[in-house]
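pasting for the record
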Amino acid sequence: LQVANTFMHSREADILQDYLESRAAKMDNWVIIFSDLIILEVALRGEVALFVIMIRRKSFKLIQLTPWWIDKAYLESRTPLPIVSNPGVSFPKWNYCDLDGQIDAAAKVAQSALIFYKMIQNNKLPQEKMGDELLDMGQYKNLFGTTRIPSLNKDKIKYGYQCETPSEHFIVMRNGHIFRIPAFDSNGNVLSLDQLKNEIKSCVIPSSEIVNEHPLGVVTAEHRDKWADLYSKLQDSNLESLKSVEDSLFVLCIDKKMDDIVGVTPADLQSLECLHGGGCNNNSHNRWFDKTLQFIIGTDGYCGVNYEHTPVEGPAVASLMEFICDQLYVSSSHSIFHYWTDKMDHSYIQLSMQLAYYRIHHKQPSTYETATLRKYLNGRTDTIRLPSVESLIFTSAMIDADDDKKKPDDNDLMHMLKYAVQKHKHYTVQAMNGNGMDRHLLGIELAASDLNMPLPKIFSTDAYKKMMHFNLSTSQVPTRNLITMCYGPSSPDCYASCYNPQDEQIHFSICTFKSCPTTSSYRFARELEHSLNDMHRVVQHSESIPRFRS
């Protein structure tokens, strides 16, 4: 594996250029001119000292930004975990419709997860690659036994692999009741399906038919400081119960039927169940949101995962879920979207979302896309940004022409699309190689804080603040099975869009806040389909069809 000994190398000129280009697609001219003067001031003052402290930190932290990032993005956040922080991930629909089927599914998921855990312990997972480059596998060891611990001002993270004695149990929750279930026999082997089903039938079901009137798990959905205050009070009376949950390998949530949510599809209902449980009248009380892994076993074949984001990124969770699907012999389903994927890649998909947003709002969206840094030891993510000047030109040309005489022909549109895709692909490679703008700027900001130095003025400009307010928050989680991830918007007027590109179809999960009058998931989905069809027409009708595959 590559050790990122050049991960945070000083590249001020490149960062400033990236910043200028990102703003050029968003800001009025007077704002750009004013900000450029401040950028010059930033480039000439203070950064040398900031990079010195960053280099020094690397002598005792391999990728020094990762601990900073975990603190800043997760542990210091006081926002409740459901929706905005914890993603929900849906399995393909399974074929059962009664309690026996639900118990059978719960036992199979638990057993498959435990087999995967043993593979991690024994270093049996296949090495993942991006092209010919090896990816860091370290996040997998964070999946099992890990829990976020509430604390005032800043939470803590308790990693399972760091415990002196490896955990040998998991937790089952039903109707807000909590049960400790053994995972292995006396020889350390994973319990059989019959043994696991017997544990659930004999220990869990008879004692959980009535909803718990005082479900402790619901407080894990609270504001972090409120939960921290209650947590400290529970230490005296419930220490062993808390420790049992925190030390468990994972939580298995056996849910009741979701009611009182109208106007949604079964897939929407499944996503809501995985994302937050559907409220306390449904299953939100039947969760422990601090736990890294929660397996959701719903009624009528709807299952999924809710995961606490601090220790892991989505691909590790998706790989675990793929393994479970393979163990349960689940085949992929089909999507309503059918396109020719040899003519598209993630850049093409990103441009379609830019076009959909522009159709609705007639402005360019400040866009976040996740870039993996797993080429580096302990690497997490950076940000791939849109719009670019090239994407602005393409989306404007597609939408703004008043009539057919003014609208560019398909060959011209194809060239615009090609340049926009190439620009996006170039920045994607830059970000995944550790040369993205956002984490570099974050490092400067946090280094200034470490040194008690004045924050460079760039961080207080309107241009920077606007650039950090995202209208689109996007991520790609590809899988073979129909596994869809969803997460909440990063701001009230944001669209959260996670997509899964497969060989013959793309699956999108789109989330918006109902309280925002200017956003609509359903309208965005319609315009996204419209945009993909229009882009497909442009590609088909142009004289030269480039292949966008990476």
